[in-house]
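Ops channel
N.P.: pipeline sanity check, posting one input/output pair.
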């Protein structure tokens, strides 16, 4: 059985704004920034076959500090509702992100190119 995977059309990363919780003591304050990672859901598989929203099982996001050896993994389940955005709270630094789609049968696309973002 040939496994086909899903194609990510594009990956968009948008840096929004920083936030601090003023109710925390000065020792507890973390200077975290909100980062909104947005992408476009694929409409076809890598082999060119049509891919409907109902066939998309979700997305797997890999991210890390730019100097790190390993990625952290986050899975976004879209079986109930198509989700094409995820919000992170990250400290200042440089981060790398890549994303893959998977269908309801568990077949994964190739990962997108790495998107590098600097948070100041």
């Amino acid at each position: 059985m040939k496994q086909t995977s899903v194609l990510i059309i594009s990956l968009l990363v948008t840096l929004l704004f920083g936030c601090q919780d003023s109710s925390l003591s000065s020792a507890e304050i973390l200077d975290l920034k909100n980062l909104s990672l947005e992408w476009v859901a694929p409409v076809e598989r890598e082999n060119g076959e049509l891919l409907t929203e109902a066939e998309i099982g979700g997305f797997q996001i890999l991210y890390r500090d730019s100097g790190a050896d390993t990625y952290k993994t986050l899975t976004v389940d879209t079986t109930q509702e198509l989700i094409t955005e995820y919000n992170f709270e990250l400290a200042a630094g440089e981060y790398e992100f890549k994303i893959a789609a998977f269908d309801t049968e568990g077949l994964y696309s190739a990962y997108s190119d790495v998107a590098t973002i600097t948070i100041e």
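N.P.: looks fine end to end. The beta strands are 10-19, 32-40, 56-65, 72-77, 85-91, 93-103, 115-119.
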